[in-house]
Design a protein that fits this description.
Layout lengths: L1 E9 L3 H12 L4 E4 L8 H4 L4 E2 L18 H13 L5 E3 L2 E5 L2 H13 L4 E4 L2 E9 L2 E8 L2 E12 L5 H6 L4 E2 L10 E7 L7 H16 L11 E4 L5 E7 L12 H25 L22 E2 L7 H5 L7 E4 L4 E3 L7 E3 L8 E3 L11 E3 L8 H7 L2 H21 L1
Parallel strand pairs: 1-2, 1-9, 2-6, 9-19
Antiparallel strand pairs: 3-5, 4-5, 7-8, 8-9, 10-14, 11-13, 12-13, 15-18, 16-17
Helix pairs in contact: 1-10
């Protein structure tokens, strides 16, 4: 059985959601395929609970959307549903607290509102072929193998899946010791008290003392707490070394062990804090994510590879299709981020050439697997920027279809 569409978007995270909406709204018959059962990617399945990259980087001025269109639309919808009237100012950046359940709901509603958009969830992409008729994707959905055909393909899987299936020379991946570390996030409910910076420092001191006494695993050292938009709910994020130089996000055994470690650390934190910290005593067991948050795997090599220096200098491009608003947040170990901010608080451009290759007509890529170097990815991988590059790729895909 072969299904056909004008545009197929592979990957239903922030970039894929925006790409599919943009293509369908431009009139293309669009099919969005996603391996999980919820759209939203890391923002729903990994419980990543902030939208970063939505705002202009100049925090000396009132907050403003850095990219109009779908990023601002989704950001405003989240603000409306959570009762927020402005993002939070955290040091030198604006961030918007988001709720994973509401993000899944927003994604569903936006897709259902587009009659030209169909969604296949629980779908694994396993094969890719190209001929004069277009792109042929092999998928498995609910145990059944199917073939999809399209003139135009947008890869937003985050893993450069299309390149890895068809031509691995089209993608790049840094060594395991430099890959940005995965994060394991859980939601704690019923946490008492006011969770300001002093509270976070005091809670961190409790955790450090327990680690030194052998009462908590060493991996708990980087645990960070941030409140949900709703009272009594707090998210805890633990960055994991994941074997450091041995980390390979494509190795299923290593991936499983990393997920196991994440659960072990979070549940150990819950058990200890419930006994030793009065604000955690009412807490039931935490809500665990569907999967850990993966910050980096493989990226395409496009017609242009945007660099960290491009971003730091706020470079603009004649063919730019989106703007970056988030600094380079490098997490090459689990001891916290190292930020490289733009030299001036001005948003750099992201050129269209980062989203395609001339020798692969009809193939576009966006989100975490766009064409960027390792340092630039530390900025461009965040959800707000992924929405912007995804929307751009969706529009470019429709333009390609119209020329065929």
């Amino acid at each position: 059985m072969t299904l056909e569409a004008d545009v197929i978007v592979a990957g239903g995270g922030s970039a894929g959601l925006a790409a599919a909406l943009a293509a369908a709204r431009a009139g293309a018959r669009t099919l969005l395929i996603e391996r999980q059962t919820k759209l939203g990617g890391m923002g729903t399945n990994a419980l990543v609970h902030t939208f970063c990259g939505l705002f202009h980087p100049d925090v000396s001025q009132p907050w403003a959307w850095v990219n109009a269109g779908i990023p601002a639309e989704i950001g405003q919808a989240m603000m409306d549903r959570t009762g927020q009237t402005a993002p939070d100012l955290m040091g030198r950046v604006y961030v918007l607290r988001q709720h994973p359940s509401l993000y899944a709901q927003i994604a569903d509603e936006l897709c259902l509102a587009e009659p030209r958009l169909s969604v296949l969830s629980g779908t694994e992409w396993i094969d890719l072929q190209k001929d004069e008729k277009g792109w042929h994707l092999g998928i498995i959905t609910r145990g059944e193998r199917r073939t999809l055909h399209t003139q135009t393909l947008v890869d937003t899987t985050g893993d450069a899946t299309g390149a890895r299936l068809l031509r691995p020379s089209w993608c790049q991946q840094v060594e395991g010791s430099r890959l940005y570390r995965p994060a394991y996030i859980a939601a704690f409910h019923g946490v008492l008290g006011t969770h300001d910076d002093g509270w976070r420092l005091q809670t961190g001191a409790v955790i450090v003392r327990a680690i030194r006494e052998g009462l908590l695993p060493a991996a708990a050292i980087g645990a960070g707490f941030r409140d949900s938009p709703f009272a009594g709910e707090t998210f805890v994020t633990v960055d994991l070394e994941a074997g450091q130089g041995e980390w390979d996000p494509f190795d299923p055994t290593k991936r499983a062990r990393m997920e196991q470690e994440g659960r072990e650390v979070v549940l150990a934190l819950w058990k200890y804090l419930r006994q030793q910290h009065p604000d955690f005593r009412p807490c039931p067991p935490p809500m665990l994510p569907v999967k850990a948050g993966i910050r980096e795997t493989a990226r395409y090599i496009g017609d242009y590879i945007i660099t960290g220096d491009d971003l730091a200098s706020s470079r603009r491009f004649e063919d730019e299709v989106a703007l970056a608003g988030w600094p380079m947040e490098k997490r090459e170990n689990a001891r916290g981020p190292k930020f490289r901010y733009f030299d001036e608080p001005l948003p750099p451009g992201i050129p269209a050439r980062c989203l395609f290759r001339q020798d692969a007509p009809g193939l576009f890529f966006a989100g975490r697997c766009l064409s960027a170097d390792h340092e630039a990815l530390a900025s461009l991988r965040v959800m707000g920027t992924c929405m912007a590059t995804g929307e751009a790729a969706g529009k470019m895909a429709v333009d390609f279809v119209s020329r065929c």
